[in-house]
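Appendix C: a fully annotated inverse folding record. The material below is reproduced so that readers can follow the format used throughout the book. The structure is listed first as tokens, followed by the designed sequence.
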């Protein structure tokens, strides 16, 4: 009986990890107008202009920035934080995005 516990526990762990990974990846969608930068699907578009887009997003924080899950999704998609502390700039190849998080608000701006 004990021989079967480890394979079952390992299978459950892999299953839970796979479901969590899928939930993380599916929570963010690349926006072609923002150089394919991932944007939270739960964010509500408030304003759009030639520089970028502004969203209402309850998970954004002026004190803590963006949640770790969003940072992980950006990293998995190939975006690296290259500059800035207060307003981090993310880069992927030759594309740059300025990501500004304030309380319940997220600004995604293209950097020329």
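Designed amino acids, in order:
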């Amino acid at each position: 009986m004990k021989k079967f516990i480890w394979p079952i526990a390992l299978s459950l762990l892999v299953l839970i990890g796979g479901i969590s990974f899928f939930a993380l990846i599916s929570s963010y969608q690349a926006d072609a107008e923002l150089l394919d930068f991932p944007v939270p699907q739960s964010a509500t578009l408030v304003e759009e202009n030639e520089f970028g887009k502004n969203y209402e997003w309850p998970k954004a924080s002026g004190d803590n920035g963006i949640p770790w899950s969003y940072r992980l999704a950006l990293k998995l998609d190939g975006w690296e934080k290259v500059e800035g502390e207060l307003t981090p700039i993310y880069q992927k190849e030759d594309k740059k995005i300025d990501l500004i998080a304030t309380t319940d608000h997220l600004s995604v701006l293209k950097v020329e």
